[in-house]
Fold this protein.
Amino acid sequence: MTTDLVEDEGQFYGKAKEYWKEVPPTVDGMLGGYGHISNTDIAGSRRFLQKFLEDGPEQIGTSCALDCGAGIGRITKRLLLPIFHTVDMVDVTEDFLAKAKTFLGKDGKRVGSYFCCGLQDFHPEPKRYDLIWIQWVIGHLTDDHLVAFLKRCKVGLRPNGIVVIKDNTTQEGVVMDEVDSSICRDVKVVRNIIKAAGLTLLLEEKQRNFPDEIYNVLSFAMR
Ligand SMILES: C[S@@+](CC[C@H](N)C(=O)[O-])C[C@H]1O[C@@H](n2cnc3c(N)ncnc32)[C@H](O)[C@@H]1O
């Protein structure tokens, strides 16, 4: 549990904020030097999401999505704006959101709001979102903050809406990265957090065709 690893919450969040301030606002910067896996990542996410766009009881609407820890909008641009009418973005790093305004091109006009805020403090508007996408950012939240944030996400969903977490997972246990001040959890811990937030897991899938040397990346859909 993160309570064992995070001794000083202020420092944990402060260090991460300082780390991201120094990262270039590019796709490569968003992916820690792994910009070349972005196409594979987006294609995998599209396939995962497709299951919730087809006719059927799990089908979600396509009015509005929220990109959490959105950075410069790598996911907003290639995954979300092509599907959803409006996309909101939230990130703690102001420079990334500023960059998004040019990076997204003309479709950026359909971004509803750019929220500069830590997810630990962010309250999604109730019943606004068909999809809340949370990728490569949960490691920056403590367990308690992540549970609380997911509870608020649940409130932010439209009828039949879903939350998706896509993130690194360890084989077993929780590992701290002192460089960017984040933690990496194992699948069981993530599942427990989802349950503690009162959400039901609908689908869980491993991203295929990523380099062997990186963590397993899993997608979890829930409502
Ligand atoms: C690894 S990047 C991923 C960016 C984006 N999700 C993507 O996949 O391209 C992590 C992002 O999380 C943001 N971030 C870090 N801590 C955060 C926090 N507490 N709340 C919101 N965003 C945070 C960083 O500014 C950065 O944009």
About this structure: The pocket of S-adenosylmethionine is lined by residues 16, 20, 30, 69-71, 74-75, 91-93, 96, 118-120, 135-137, 140 (CB under 6 Å). The beta strands are 64-68, 86-91, 111-116, 129-135, 157-169, 175-177, 182-184, 201-206, 216-222. DSSP finds eight helices and nine strands in the chain. Residues 95 and 188 are 34 Å apart (CA to CA).
